[in-house]
TrEMBL record:
Domain of life from the UniProt record: Bacteria
SUPFAM superfamilies: Nucleotide cyclase, Periplasmic binding protein-like II
TM region(s), chain numbering: 12-33, 763-781
Alphabetical UniProt keywords: Kinase, Membrane, Signal, Transferase, Transmembrane, Transmembrane helix
Name recorded for this polypeptide: SENSORY TRANSDUCTION HISTIDINE KINASE
Cofactors (names): Mg(2+)
InterPro entries registered for this protein in UniProt: GGDEF_dom, Nucleotide_cyclase, Rev_trsase/Diguanyl_cyclase, Solute-binding_3/MltF_N
Cross-referenced NCBIfam families: GGDEF
C-alpha cells in the first residue's frame, strides 16, 4: 500500500514545482520594477567623496561601487541622479527617484521608506588642527568653548544647537576643511574617511582626527539603500542583490577607496613604452629640466642637493621611461625666459594657462595646491579680490595669475623673484599680504620664523581653482609630453601617496605661535625620566653673558638659564650645570657623556657626530667689531686679508670656515680675549653676537670699539642632546616647542636691561681733572680729527666703489647691475622715456682661452670693457660685466636709430682692433642683443632683459659679429596695433 501511494508523489510534486516556478518567473518579470527599457534611477549626493561624487555624467565612489555590485547581482539597469541631500531626498519622497543611496534608518522615515540592511556604518568624528587642539572633549557641553563647523542641515545639527555649541555652517565638506585649515573654526564634525580624504586632497595634511564626536545616539551613521513602500518588488530585488555581495568584497571596495582613492593597487603595474617611444627617448638624449630652487616643498636646495615632491615625481617618470634628466635649478624669473628661448626643455613647476599653451605642451597635473593669502592683519578676511583693495599685495614674479591680479589691484601688486624675499617683506611690513601656494608659504613662514601669520583666505579666480603643478615641454619635443603624461598616469596611487606624505605630511602646518601644543610625554619618555629621577646634567658656556654663563658658585645664568627655568616649571625636570671653566671644556664633557645636553648650541657637521639638536629657540644677530677708526664693511670679503678673531670651538667658527674659506680666522679662548686683542690691534676685528659683545664691551670698558657691520649668518641656537638617547631629544623638543613668543621676548628684554649704559663716577672725576689738559690740545685734535675724517670718507668712497666694480675690467659688477638696473628702468617708466638694454657677448671666447690661455682671455675682456667705455660716455649710460664674457649696457634714449648707431660703432670698433698678449695679435668680435621700448605701467624690468637675451641668441644664430634688436611695445602701441 505504501509502495503504491508513494509512487506517483514525486512526479506530482515535480510538476507542481515546475508550474510554480514558471508562474513565479512570469510574475517577477511582469511586476518587478526594472526592465530593459526602464532603467532604475538611483539618487546620490554629488559631492560626498569618497562615498559618492559626480563629475560630468560619471559617478564614482565607494557607495557607487556598492550600487553597481547590487545591479550586477540583480540584473538591474541603473542610472544615477545627483544633487545635494535635500534635493535628492525631496525627489525620492515625490517618487521621482526609485532608489535613494546612503540613507540612514529612523522611525519617521520608516513610515514611508523600506530600508535594506546597512552595508556600511561610519562614525562621526571631530577633526582639528593639532597646533590649536581641541582639549578634553567628552561631551557636547565640552564643545561650548569652541567654534565648531558642520555641513548645513546635517542631521545632528539640532543636537549641537540644543547643547549650546557655537556652530558655523558651510555648504560642503570641502568648505569645512578649508575653514579649519585657515583657522576660521576650531574644529569640524564629519565622517572620518570623508574628512581625511578631502584634507589630503586639498593639501591640508596637517589636519588630524581628534577622536569620535560626542554625539551620543547621533554618533554613528548607517548607510543603506532605501525604496518607497509602494515598490515592494523593487525593494526585494535590491535587498537580494545587496545580500548577494560577499562581506569580503565590500571590505575590499572600502579599503580601495580609503587607501588608494578607488584605484586598484595592481592597475599601475606593467607600464611599458612602445618601440617607437623607446626609440624617441633614446634619440632625445638627456633633457634639461628647470626646477625652481626656492619652491619648497616641491623643489628646493638643501645641503647642496635638489629635492622635493616635483623632483621625486620626475625621478619616478625617469624610472618608468628611461628618460635622462639634467636638473637646472634657479628662480622662475631666470628659468622661464630660458624655457622660452629653448635653453631648457622641460619646466617642472608650471601651471597651465591659455597664453602658455601656444608654446608649451602640458602633462596632466601631478599636484593641485590652494593659493592663499598670508597676512599679519588679524582682522583681514579674504573672500574676493575686492577685499585686497588698498593693500600692498606681494606675489611671485611671473606667477600665472599675475595679470588678473594687476588688472584688479593695479599698482598695489608687487612682484618678487625670490619667495624668501617676498616673505621677508611681509615680516618687515613692506607688504600687507603675500599670495602664495599654501605649502610653499608655510615653509618660508617657518624658515624665517615669522610670528603671528594668519591665512586670510583662499584665492580662487574664475577658471583657476588652485595652482596646478604640471610638467611643461617645449613644442619641439611634443612626443615627450605624451610619454611623460602616460608615465604620470602609470604612477600608482600608493606611490604617489608615499611621495606626497614624504613632502606634505608635516610641511604644510601653519605657523601658529608655539606653546599652544599640550606638553605631554609618552610612556617611554616618562619611563626614561623616571630612571633618572627627572634630573639631567647640562653643560653651558661659562662666560657668554647675557646669553649664558656660570657664577662663582656654579649657578646657571643668562637667557638660557631663564629658558631652562621655564622648562623646569612645566616638566618638573631639574637641570644641574656641570662646573667648567670654558666652552671647550663643555664640548669635551658632552662628547665624553659627562653631561646630557648643551643648553645653547648651534648645529654643525662636527657636533652632529655625537649630538642631536632641537629647533632653535632664539635668534641672535651676528656682527663684526673693530676699532672706532676702522671703516664699515659691506661683506666679509672686505676684510678677507686681515686677521679676525672667533672663539675656539664655537659653531660659528665651523660655519664660517665652510661658507667663507678665504677668511683669515684666528681662534681665541674667549670673547673677552678677542675684544682685547682688537683693542690692542693684534686683530683687525672680532666676529661674535651683538648681545654678548655689547655686554662684554660694557664690562671691560672698551669705548674705542664699534660695530663695523652685520654678518649675514645669525646665531640660531637650540638645545643639543647626546645622540645615544633619542628619548631625550624628543623631550627637549617638546619643551622648546612649548615656549610662546611672549615668553621668549620677556626673557630677552629682561637681559637687555643689563646692557643699559651706567655712569662710572671715578672715571668722570679723572676726566674732569684731565679736562684742563684736553682744552690745550683741542685745536690740534680738531685739525687731526678733520684730516682723519677726510681720509675715512675717502676710504669709504673707495670701498663703496670697489664693492660694485669688477676687479678685472673695472666696470660695474653684478652688484652694480642689481642696484642700478631697477633705478634706470623706473626712471624711464616714471618719465615716459625710452629704455634700452644691450647684452654683449664675446664670440668664440672659449677658443681664445683654449688657444692663447686665460691670461690672453682676460686681456681681451679688458680691451672689450675699455672699448665700451670709449663709446658709451653719457650720464645715463650704465656698463656692467654680467658674468664671464657677457656684458650689459643699459640706458635711456630718445632716438632709437642714434642708439643703434652707437652700438654698431662699438661693435665695428672692437672688430677692427687687436689685443696683444705674449707676442700674439688677437682679434675677436662680439654679438649684441638689443631690447628697446617705453616701459608701461605693467611692464617689468625682467622683460627687457629677457628680450635682450633673446635678441642676443638671434645674433649668434644668424652668424655672430652682428646686432639684433627687438622692441617691447608700450601699452598704447599695443592697443593701437590690436585696433588696427
Amino acid at each position: 500500500m505504501s509502495a503504491v501511494i508513494a509512487g506517483p508523489k514525486p512526479s506530482l510534486i515535480t510538476l507542481l514545482a515546475s508550474i510554480y516556478g514558471v508562474l513565479a518567473l512570469t510574475f517577477l518579470s511582469t511586476f518587478a520594477w526594472p526592465s530593459v527599457n526602464e532603467p532604475v534611477s538611483v539618487g546620490i549626493v554629488a559631492d560626498n567623496k569618497p562615498y559618492t561624487s559626480m563629475v560630468g555624467r560619471t559617478a564614482s565612489g565607494f557607495s557607487i561601487d556598492i550600487v553597481r555590485e547590487v545591479a550586477r547581482q540583480s540584473g538591474l539597469d541603473i542610472e544615477f541622479r545627483a544633487g545635494t541631500w535635500p534635493e535628492v531626498f525631496g525627489a525620492f519622497e515625490r517618487g521621482e527617484i526609485d532608489i535613494i543611496e546612503g540613507i540612514s534608518y529612523n522611525d519617521d522615515r520608516a513610515r514611508t521608506v523600506q530600508f535594506t540592511k546597512p552595508y556600511h556604518i561610519r562614525q562621526m568624528h571631530l577633526m582639528h588642527d593639532p597646533v590649536n587642539p581641541l582639549k578634553n572633549i567628552d561631551s557636547l557641553e565640552s564643545l561650548n568653548d569652541y567654534r565648531i563647523g558642520v555641513v548645513r542641515d546635517v542631521y545632528f545639527r539640532d543636537a549641537l544647537q540644543t547643547a549650546g555649541v557655537s556652530l558655523v555652517t558651510y555648504d560642503s565638506i570641502p568648505g569645512l576643511i578649508r575653514a579649519l585649515a585657515f583657522g576660521w573654526v576650531d574644529g569640524i564634525i564629519g565622517p572620518e574617511l570623508t574628512l581625511d580624504y578631502y584634507a589630503n586632497q586639498a593639501g591640508f595634511r596637517f589636519l588630524e582626527i581628534a577622536g569620535p564626536a560626542p554625539l551620543g545616539e547621533w554618533s554613528k551613521e548607517d548607510f543603506r539603500l532605501g525604496v518607497l513602500k509602494e515598490n515592494d518588488e523593487l525593494f526585494n530585488v535590491v535587498s537580494s542583490g545587496l545580500a548577494a555581495i560577499p562581506d569580503e568584497r565590500i571590505e575590499e571596495l572600502f579599503n580601495r577607496w580609503q587607501e588608494y582613492g578607488g584605484t586598484s593597487v595592481a592597475e599601475s603595474s606593467g607600464f611599458t613604452l612602445s618601440d617607437a617611444h623607446q626609440r624617441y627617448i633614446s634619440e632625445a638624449g638627456p633633457v634639461r629640466v628647470g626646477f625652481m630652487s626656492d619652491y619648497a616643498p616641491f623643489s628646493f636646495h638643501d645641503a647642496d642637493a635638489l629635492q622635493g615632491l616635483s623632483v621625486d615625481v620626475l625621478n619616478r617618470i625617469s624610472d618608468l621611461t628611461g628618460l635622462q634628466i639634467i636638473p637646472v635649478p634657479g628662480q622662475w624669473s631666470e628659468l622661464y625666459p630660458r624655457f622660452l628661448n629653448r635653453d631648457i626643455d622641460i619646466m617642472a613647476n608650471i601651471s597651465k594657462t591659455e597664453e602658455r599653451e601656444a608654446f608649451t605642451r602640458f602633462t596632466r597635473p601631478y599636484h593641485i595646491i590652494p593659493n592663499v593669502a598670508f597676512t599679519l592683519d588679524k582682522n583681514l578676511l579674504f573672500n574676493s579680490l575686492a577685499d585686497l583693495q588698498g593693500l600692498k599685495v606681494a606675489i611671485g614674479s611671473g606667477i600665472y595669475y599675475e595679470g588678473a591680479l594687476r588688472e584688479a589691484l593695479g599698482d598695489n601688486v608687487f612682484s618678487f623673484t625670490a619667495q624668501q624675499a617676498m616673505f621677508q617683506a611681509l615680516a618687515e611690513g613692506s607688504v600687507d599680504v603675500a599670495l602664495a601656494a599654501l605649502p610653499n608659504g608655510n615653509y618660508w613662514v617657518r624658515e624665517l620664523r615669522i610670528a603671528g601669520v594668519d591665512i586670510a583666505g583662499e584665492m580662487t579666480l574664475d577658471g583657476m581653482p588652485g595652482e596646478d603643478l604640471r610638467f611643461g615641454v617645449r613644442p619641439a619635443l611634443e612626443p615627450l609630453a605624451f610619454i611623460m603624461d602616460a608615465a604620470l598616469g602609470a604612477i600608482s596611487q600608493t606611490e604617489m601617496r608615499t611621495i606626497e606624505n614624504r613632502w606634505l605630511g608635516t610641511s604644510t602646518r601653519r605657523n601658529q605661535p608655539p606653546g599652544t601644543d599640550p606638553l605631554t610625554f609618552s610612556e617611554a619618555e616618562q619611563a626614561w625620566l623616571a630612571d633618572r629621577n627627572r634630573r639631567l646634567t647640562i653643560c653651558v658656556d661659562p662666560d657668554w653673558l647675557p646669553l649664558e654663563g656660570l657664577s662663582e658658585d656654579n649657578k646657571h645664568l643668562g637667557i638660557s638659564a631663564d629658558i631652562f627655568a621655564l622648562f623646569t616649571e612645566r616638566s618638573n625636570i631639574k637641570f644641574t650645570p656641570l662646573p667648567v671653566d670654558s666652552w671647550a671644556e663643555s664640548i669635551k664633557a658632552v662628547k665624553e657623556r659627562q653631561c646630557d645636553l648643551l643648553s645653547m648650541a648651534m648645529e654643525t657637521p662636527e657636533l652632529l657626530e655625537y649630538l642631536s639638536f632641537t629647533e632653535p629657540y632664539i635668534q641672535i644677530p651676528s656682527v663684526l667689531l673693530g676699532r672706532v677708526e676702522a671703516p664699515y664693511i659691506n661683506t666679509l670679503d672686505d676684510i678677507s686679508d686681515q686677521p679676525v678673531g672667533v672663539v675656539k670651538d664655537y659653531a660659528f667658527l665651523e660655519l664660517l670656515r665652510t661658507t667663507n674659506p678665504h677668511l683669515n680666522l684666528v681662534e681665541v679662548p674667549s670673547e673677552k680675549t678677542g675684544l682685547r686683542m682688537v683693542q690692542e690691534r693684534k686683530l683687525a676685528g672680532y666676529l661674535g653676537t651683538l648681545s654678548t659683545a655689547s655686554y662684554n664691551m660694557q664690562e671691560l670698558g672698551l669705548a674705542d670699539l664699534k660695530v663695523l657691520g652685520r654678518i649675514p649668518a645669525d646665531w640660531t641656537p637650540g638645545v643639543a642632546t647626546r645622540n645615544d638617547q633619542p628619548e631625550l631629544l624628543n623631550i627637549m623638543q617638546k619643551l622648546v616647542s612649548s615656549l610662546t613668543d611672549e615668553e621668549r621676548k620677556s626673557v630677552e628684554q629682561q637681559w637687555a636691561g643689563l646692557l643699559e649704559p651706567t655712569v662710572d663716577y671715578t672715571l668722570m672725576f679723572q676726566l674732569t681733572v684731565g679736562a684742563v689738559v684736553l682744552v690745550g690740545l683741542l685745536c690740534y685734535w680738531n685739525r687731526k680729527l678733520g684730516r682723519l675724517n677726510r681720509e675715512l670718507a675717502a676710504a669709504n668712497d673707495r670701498l663703496a666703489h670697489l664693492s660694485v666694480t669688477d676687479d678685472l675690467t673695472q666696470i660695474g659688477n653684478r652688484s652694480y647691475f642689481d642696484r642700478e638696473f631697477s633705478k634706470s628702468f623706473h626712471w624711464c617708466q616714471r618719465h615716459g622715456a625710452g629704455f634700452a638694454v644691450a647684452m654683449v657677448d664675446a664670440d668664440h671666447f672659449k677658443e681664445i682661452n683654449d688657444t692663447y690661455g686665460h691670461d690672453a682671455g682676460d686681456r681681451c675682456l679688458v680691451a672689450l670693457a675699455d672699448t665700451m667705455r670709449t663709446h658709451f660716455r653719457r650720464d645715463t649710460d650704465r656698463l656692467t660685466r654680467f658674468g664671464g664674457e657677457e656684458f650689459v649696457m643699459f640706458t635711456s634714449f630718445s632716438d632709437r636709430e642714434e642708439l643703434v648707431s652707437r652700438l654698431e660703432g662699438f661693435r665695428e670698433g672692437l672688430a677692427g682692433q687687436t689685443t696683444c698678449c705674449n707676442d700674439e695679435q688677437i682679434r675677436f668680435t662680439v654679438s649684441i642683443g638689443l631690447a628697446t621700448g617705453t616701459p608701461g605701467k605693467d611692464t617689468v624690468p625682467a622683460e627687457f632683459l629677457r628680450l635682450a637675451d633673446k635678441a642676443l641668441y638671434l645674433a649668434k644664430q644668424n652668424g655672430r659679429n652682428r646686432l639684433e634688436a627687438l622692441t617691447i611695445e608700450s601699452p598704447a602701441e599695443d592697443q593701437a596695433a590690436r585696433q588696427g
